Amino acid sequence: MKSSLIDYQSWLTGLYIHNAIGVVLGNAFSKGRKAKYIAEPISFTQRRHKTARVKEDEEKQIRDQFLAFKRLTDTMNMGLKKR
Q: Can you spell out the DSSP letters for 19-70?
């Protein structure tokens, strides 16, 4: 049980770090709207009903973070090709 709890806490920490890195990269490479770090703790114990607009905003933020990371990797790959 203790090992399972440690695994869960480590996974949850990774989820927070993943979000933080995504926000930093999204803000560094986006020209428009700035991404924001999550406002509330991530909770899997209580269900919250989200409106369609909130879900769309979250999906847009994820897409923006993905595109920012893709631009970063494309830029790095172009630099490697020039060598």
A: HHHHHHHHHHH-SSSPP---SS---SSS--PPPHHHHHHHHHHHHHHHHHHH
Q: What is the CA radius of gyration of the chain?
A: 16
Q: What is the pLDDT of residues 29-54, one digit of tens each?
A: 877 778 888 888 877 665 556 677 78
Q: Which of 54, 42, 49 is nearest to 15 (CA)?
A: 42
**pLDDT over threshold 90, residue 17:** yes
Show Cβ contacts of residue 37 under 8 Å, excluding neighbours closer than 6 positions. Answer: 19, 20, 23
